[in-house]
Amino acid sequence: MQETFATHRVDNQPPPFGACNIWMDDAGLREAVFREGGETFAPQLVEYGQVAGTRLLQLADDAHRDRPRLIAYDAYGRRLDRVEFHPAYHEVMGTAIAHGVAGWSWAQPQPGAHVVRAALSYLHYQGEPGSSCPLTMTHAGVPVLRQNPALREWADKAAAPHYDPRFVPIHDKQGVTLGMGMTEKQGGSDVRSNSTRATPLAAIGEYLLVGHKWFFSAPMSDGFLVLAQAPGGLSCFLLPRWRPDGTVNALRLLRLKDKQGDWSNASSEVEFENAWACLIGEEGRGVATILEMVMLTRLDCMLGSAGLMRMALRRVLHHVSHRHAFGKRLLDQPLMRNVLADLALESEAATALALRVAGAVDRAPQDPHEAALARVATAIGKFWICKRASMVAAEAQECVGGLGYIEESGMPRLFRQSPLNAIWEGCSNIQCLDVLRALGREPETGEALGAELQAAAGHDPHFDTVLQAGLAQLAAGTDEAGARALVERLALLLQGATLLRAGHPLAAHWCASRLGGHTACFGGLASAEAIEAALARVGV
Ligand SMILES: Cc1cc2nc3c(=O)[nH]c(=O)nc-3n(C[C@H](O)[C@H](O)[C@H](O)COP(=O)(O)OP(=O)(O)OC[C@H]3O[C@@H](n4cnc5c(N)ncnc54)[C@H](O)[C@@H]3O)c2cc1C
Description:
Blueprint: H1 27-35, H2 42-65, E1 69-73, E2 79-84, H3 87-98, H4 104-107, H5 113-127, H6 132-145, H7 152-159, E3 178-181, E4 197-200, E5 206-217, E6 223-230, E7 233-240, E8 251-256, E9 267-280, H8 286-322, E10 324-325, E11 328-329, H9 334-363, H10 368-399, H11 411-417, H12 420-423, H13 428-441, H14 443-454, H15 461-476, H16 483-502, H17 507-515, H18 528-537
Parallel strand pairs: 3-6
Antiparallel strand pairs: 1-2, 4-5, 5-9, 6-7, 7-9, 8-9, 10-11
Helix pairs in contact: 1-9, 2-3, 2-5, 5-8, 5-9, 6-7, 6-8, 8-9, 8-10, 9-10, 9-16, 9-18, 10-11, 10-13, 10-14, 10-16, 13-14, 13-16, 14-16, 15-16, 16-17
Bound molecules: flavin-adenine dinucleotide.
């Protein structure tokens, strides 16, 4: 490598960010997966940690730089409604699906399968986050499709380890991908305002849809779970790209969104011009039907944001380990060590909570406590972890200095991506209101949450103090205006309880900081011991 110019040598710059096995070097993830019952499948995670930390990271550069393009028409004006991607995107999708990022939970239906798929999703997000959108929708759509026995082939092929991007009917494919269409121009959070109409055909369960969707990601998927107004009210449908008679369905791609980030993934605006669709669940029960999918995509938002924090930290640690200022490596500057340790604390707690919720989802079918906890902790964790991800990404970017603002450093891509999980699948306010709804309408969720927090009592004075206040707040309830304050406290308590019950080596430091009074910015840890412990945890 040429390091000498006519005027200067390239000095005091880190070597290129290196490839590594991102499962093997993540103690927090490994311990969480084992704790939650996923150890049987550890070899799968060793393998994917290597793939995600090497090949996917390389492919991500091309997949993000060369963004998807809409090919609406052919040269002669005929409609095509296709999206063209850089080949790197297809390789990413094929690799992920072959390794079970979309289908592992359904293909290996045994204890721990959801935990392992969650870990695969967390690893994948670090390698290439944009493709996580179609991967999670494909994963999460399976239980909804299974509600309609006529859609068995769809459910089986969505769970299959085969990626086939060809624009052909599903009978000609071994595997399919899924998208989701809820948001319309007049309302995203308020999906009951959907105006797309579904008119029943003579054949039972078949409808024609007329209307639009304002956000419709991964529009090249084979099928979409969409909401539309049927005679009996808002209902859930499978809308395939091809009709059962082998003709192309009337799904028109109007344009692709020019997004802040998430560039490898296509998000579109669409119209349905009498598009054929198949009812899932009962007419009028659309929100309840699609909620099963949304609960799982919300879990993946949490996992993705936790993964993003980890990748940001990883890149920062690489940089500061090689960069010197004022006679010392940045890594050895006391104030920088505080910032890094604080970021590491945040990342560890996010990973632990995200995997705790994945464990609850895994055990939910057999265990009512875990089912109730999964219900409420999904909303709590989605709110908190996705919100914190932006703050971590911004701080991490600054740790890299000016280079952190430059595209090749990888930090801008993380920064652009970081707010997205807080917005889609229900923005932060919607998550907080969902917590209130769950606590109000399903009292078992409050009981499960209380029991989960109580089980960690007696081990840490900071936790115990905040626990008393939190339980009182939980019992008293709140109006909508107070929802964020309540859910933030519950999120912190849940993170603390998860770390304490796990005997996590950073549990006491985390409680002292996050429950004992933390500064608004990262870098305010009060104890040298906490700083050293958190850094030791990430290999410093
Ligand atoms: C890149 C991208 C891809 C997407 N892909 C898809 C997709 O594939 N399919 C799909 O269906 N959707 C998709 N979405 C849409 C996304 O889910 C919605 O944007 C989101 O749910 C918010 O809806 P909205 O944009 O209509 O905002 P609004 O509903 O108008 O909300 C605006 C703000 O108001 C707040 N708010 C709303 N109601 C209340 C209330 N009662 N109290 C307090 N605050 C409230 C919200 O929290 C939010 O902060 C995508 C979005 C993005 C950015």
